[in-house]
Amino acid sequence: MPNDLAPLPIRDAATRATDARLVVRGLAKTVPGGRELFSGLDLAVAGGELVAIVGESGTGKSTLLNILAGLDEADNGVVEVGGTALGPLDETARTTLRRERIGFVFQAFHILPYLTLGQNVALPLALVSPDAARATSEAERLLHAVGLGGRAGDYARDLSGGELQRVAIARALVHRPALILADEPTGNLDPDTAARVLELFASAVREGGAAAVIVTHSPATAAVADRVLTLTATGLKASDD
Fold first, then answer.
1. N- to C-terminal Cα distance for the chain?
2. Cβ-proximal residues to 80 (8 Å cutoff; 6+ apart), any chain
3. What pLDDT, in 10s, does the model give residues 105-141?
4. What is the pTM of this model?
5. Are 168 and 111 in contact (CB under 8 A)?
6. DSSP string covering 34-57, please?
7. Exposed (0-12), middle (13-18) or buried (19+): which is 83, by Cβ within 10 Å?
8. Can you give the CATH number for the domain in which 162 is found?
9. pLDDT tens string 159-202
10. Which of 11, 16, 67, 91 is the one with CA 20 to 30 A from 36?
């Protein structure tokens, strides 16, 4: 499997400094029953930067990730993706923003079983571009980059867990999103496969210029990040505080 994604398109410096960026200010979330998950949460992630968020179970890491993706709403605060605030957007506009600017790596993969691997990876780009040939070509190139060249016609049933995770990463990158969010991206992988997937993911983020946030329980996963933050009830704290 290749060790880097150097052949992939690289964003210029101006794009990295503006579009590929996540800004969060004063975020707060309370769950049903009145328990406050967090408040006063601030975060800024630059293009090409990978941030890991850790914390005990129940602190709201996955909820935070869903808020950053516009899949859930905070009680207070602002989330901006590529300079666009999510709060004022209606659901249609949020869906469009997710489609165009966000790549999501789910813990459970969510590879569609009735589509080929190539079709799965091409789907996010096909949804925003009328050029079907381009979507197919980009999908094949990314599958090659993640070590699955020649497998575009295969189906999910033909792959191991580690291979499925690589497909999920390729799918998250295919439309060159400004923001990549990953929920326990190696939670179901053995240590060797996890290490390879993490190396690939980190290389893709840095070469492609996206801002990336991983939530994880794994010290090994957090170790690949540029910054490691701990989620607490009063916000995000640097892991060495």
1. 37
2. 21, 22, 23, 24, 86
3. 988 889 999 999 999 999 999 999 889 999 999 999 9
4. 0.86
5. yes
6. S-EEEEEEEEEE-TT-EEEEE--T
7. exposed
8. 3.40.50.300
9. 988 899 889 989 998 998 989 999 988 877 788 878 877 887 88
10. 91
